Amino acid sequence: MKSSKNKIGKILIDNNTYIMLLLLLIICAIISPDFFTVQNITNLLRQYSGTIIVCMGMLYVILTGGIDLSVGSILALGSVMVAYALTTKELGMIGAILLPLVCGLICGAVTGFFVAFTNMAPFVASLAMMTIARGVAYVVSNGQPVQTPANTIGRLGVAKLGGVLPWLAILALVVVVIFFFILRYTAFGRIVIAIGSNETSVRLAGIPTKYYKLSVYAISGLCSGLAGIIASSRTAIGTPIIGEGLELDAIAACVIGGASLNGGRGSVLKTVVGVFVLAFISNIMNLLAVPAYPQDIIKGVIIVLSVLLQEFTTRKSETI
């Protein structure tokens, strides 16, 4: 009997993130009849597609025991770069899409270099890149929103499969599947997790941990650059002010999804659930016309409670 209770308890603990999402869905559906409308769900998928992609990169960084505060600024830089390239018309559509991806990759690689090869604290290195990337975005855009030409990247932002499912959501799904496969089934994914669990042991095994640490920051920058393209496609502009505070949401989503800030523990699927937890909280408060400032307070309290729940269930699982 005791063994059966332990099994049930372990199942509940292991799936607490999904249970949290289910309860939140039920509460949102009860509070607002507009929550489960097709239009609202479609808007949510479009709005948070970029956030999901950013969180995939952030998760890999956190798995190594690091943190990346530059994701929001790199997103803004990517947004400005794609809009600027489309406006000048010198690179064409393909070049305009590649430019923010390359910029994001370079920004992430630079951060990763300082973290991996100079032993600079991830907080400091990514904080510096956060300032630099945002500054470059302001310089390129001259501090003003850059309007994208008609019938270019903006078409992606409004396109839907079957008239219902946004193509942006499909793109996010493809990225999630790729990251899930890499983390679960490849040596790279296993090494990334191992570095966060015990970097010294991995290094003594002859694995070049520095290059792996550099690569996860480069991947995070690449994801942020892609999210910048998505942001421009949604709004039809590139702006240097977009993405402010995104790094905090990305970290919160990963932690709500069970990732440990000490590294070595995290899940792609649960991180996606973490994004939707934050999305549903913001969405239901908007539907209830809750003012913006109280929203931040409520959101912060819920994040703290969610993290405390994760820590409690983690300790509990170790005793079962």
How does this structure look, described?
Helix 4 packs across helix 10 (209-235) and helix 11 (246-256) packs across helix 12 (268-287). The protein is 77% helix and 2% strand. The longest helix has 28 residues, at 292-319. The chain is built from 13 helices and four strands. The two termini are 14 Å apart. The protein is globular. The protein has a domain at 41-242. The strands form two sheets. A two-stranded antiparallel sheet has the order 1-4.
Tally of DSSP helical segments:
13
* Rg from Cα: 20 Å
Poorly predicted tracts of residues: none
Q: Report mean pLDDT, rounded to a whole number.
A: 89
Q: How many beta-strand runs? A: 4
Largest sheet: 2 strands, antiparallel
Structural class: mainly alpha
Shape field: globular
Measured by DSSP, the beta-strand proportion falls in: under 5%
Helix-strand topology string: HHHHHHEHEEHHHEHHH
Fraction of residues in H or I helices: over 70%
Q: How far apart are the first and last residues' alpha carbons, in Å? A: 14 Å
Across the major sheet, the strand order is 1-4
Features:
320 residues; two-stranded antiparallel sheet; mainly alpha
What is this structure, in a nutshell?
With 320 residues, the chain is an all-alpha fold. It contains 13 helices and 4 strands.
Task: Set out the fold topology.
Elements: H1 2-14, H2 16-31, H3 38-63, H4 71-88, H5 92-117, H6 122-141, E1 146-147, H7 154-158, E2 160-161, E3 165-166, H8 167-185, H9 187-204, H10 209-235, E4 237-238, H11 246-256, H12 268-287, H13 292-319
Antiparallel strand pairs: 1-4, 2-3
